[in-house]
Specification:
Helix content: 10-25%
CATH topology: Porin
Radius of gyration: 24 Å
CATH class: Mainly Beta
Strand content: over 45%
Number of domains: 1
Shape: elongated
Strand order of the largest sheet: 1-2-3-5-6-9-10-11
Number of helices: 3
CATH architecture: Beta Barrel
Structural class: mainly beta
Order of helices and strands: HEHEEHEEEEEEEE
Length: 234
Amino acid sequence: MKTKTVILFLFASLALTAQNTRNQIGLAIGPSFPLSDFARSDISDSTSGWAKTGVAIQISYAYRIAHNFGIAAVGLYSSNKLNTEKYKNELESLHPDYGVSIETLRNWSSGGMLLGPYLHFPLSDAISWDIRALFGFYGGYSPHFIIRTTQKTTGEKAEYLRQSDKAFSYGYSLGTGFTFSLSNYYLLVFADYTGSPVRFNNVIGWDWEGEPYTTSFKQEISYVSLTFGIGFTL
């Protein structure tokens, strides 16, 4: 009799868990704020990324296993312009006899697919607080730009070009946010820290003498995004 009672209790618990399981799909967009090396604008520091505030997009899927716990998968993308104004000023301060202009043909762009656990805390019937920690595949493109200089006295011109390259690595993201339920729909706002150590191994271009070159460099991509969006509960 005791065994039957335990079995019935287990089946009842599983049924309640299944009823509480929810699938959520969301789409959000917002600003992307570069940090650390990615945002640094020091021409004497090779780790400088010269990245400006950009735009972040996230597509998220959340599967709630239990009342306060689930698994989340997030596809994310960020685009950040090169800070050409600071780059120009740095070059002109080092070479005051030259005028400098910089043309950007491609921005920093990065993204990936991350997966991990999340915690779910209902604050009311309509508002919930989520915390997530994600890890997965990440990649990006370096910027494509041309630096043009003009010698102020002689008018002599020169160009330096660096083409874009793609690279892949691992990525991680730590985030927290709130969801506001509207029947089968919900509004969401999330703040996430995302990072990835990406190494570009085949960056090509032309130097100041017009000679082709190939170089490689590592870029620590890191940014905080603040995204707002809408989702649907299945």
